[in-house]
Amino acid sequence: MALLTPESVLGAARQVIGWGFTAAYIPAIVAVCALTPEERRTTVGPKLTRTWGLTMATIAGVQVSYTPAARAALDERVPRVLCFNHGSTLDVLTGAALLPEGGVLVVKSEMKKVPLLGIGCTAIGSIFLDRGDRDRAFASLEDAAQRIKTERLQVLIAPEGTRSTDGSLGKFKVGAFHLAALAGVPILPIVLHRHSALWPHGRLAPHRGEAIIDVLEPFHVRGLENDSLRDDAIELRRRYAEALAAGPLA
Q1: Do 76 and 152 touch, CB atoms closer than 8 A?
Q2: Residue pLDDT, tens place only, 193-231
């Protein structure tokens, strides 16, 4: 039987409060997005999403901080693909908290089955990627690429596909690179620091502390050829590994 400690009890209480807030907030998101004209949803949706992410992080005891470079980059609305390293459940909260204007989430299709979050993701116009079916996954990427170009979207996606259990940086899949190439836009690499330490795999709730968001220089995909996409994935993963080892820039 797990030993109860003040931290674990407080963590459980924060989880209950967080899910209570989510249960009340998601219906509001659905209602507001349903009443918002379609051309304004890419402004309203991200704003609602940021509020949820920041509030949930605060309830969880995590302060979300940005380096000056990250703040400046995310204040822009530029058609592009936003990548992030995915090593912790905390990424869900900070990923929502950083979503810029015109931002759209790319989430795995299984998210539709998650209570509340699935409905919320649908309401804000998220792109659901079926990783188990190659044809449907490619069709989703093509649709997303077209939306990036016509709606000036910023699409947030984790190139690892899923989070690691030990916080280490996983292999980068080519989906994000394929999407950037199809849309003809750059990738903005977003580096999430301290996330796996704050919320390790298996914990009910995160430790209290500061999560830092940084960015790297925009990355330009060279083409749609499979070999080129794989080489780009390897190169960007290398840059992420160096950045995570060095820590956030001042």
Answers
A1: no
A2: 999 999 998 888 899 999 999 999 999 999 999 999 999
Q: Which runs of consecutive H residues, i.e. helices, occur in 36-157? A: 41-59, 68-74, 90-97, 117-123, 134-151
The rounded percent of the chain whose pLDDT value lies above 70 is 97
128: left (phi over 0), alpha (psi -120 to 50) or beta: beta
Distance, CA of 229 to CA of 138 (rounded, Å): 14
Give the residue-averaged pLDDT of 42-54. 93
6-246 maps to which CATH number?
3.40.1130.10
- The yes-or-no verdict on residue 1 having pLDDT over 50 is no
d(CA 61, CA 89): 14
Q: Please give the structure tokens belonging to residue 239.
A: 């840059």
Record the pTM.
Answer: 0.89
**Structure tokens given for 181:** 């190439």
Domain spans, the chain: 6-246
Q: Which long-range contacts (CB under 8 A, 24 or more apart) does 22-27 make?
A: 22/52, 22/56, 22/116, 22/117, 23/116, 25/51, 25/52, 25/55, 26/116, 26/117, 26/119, 26/120, 26/123
Confidence of residue 165 (pLDDT cuts 50, 70, 90): confident
The two structure tokens encoding residue 85: 């390293």
Q: Structure tokens of 29? A: 């998101």
Higher pLDDT, 141 or 51: 51
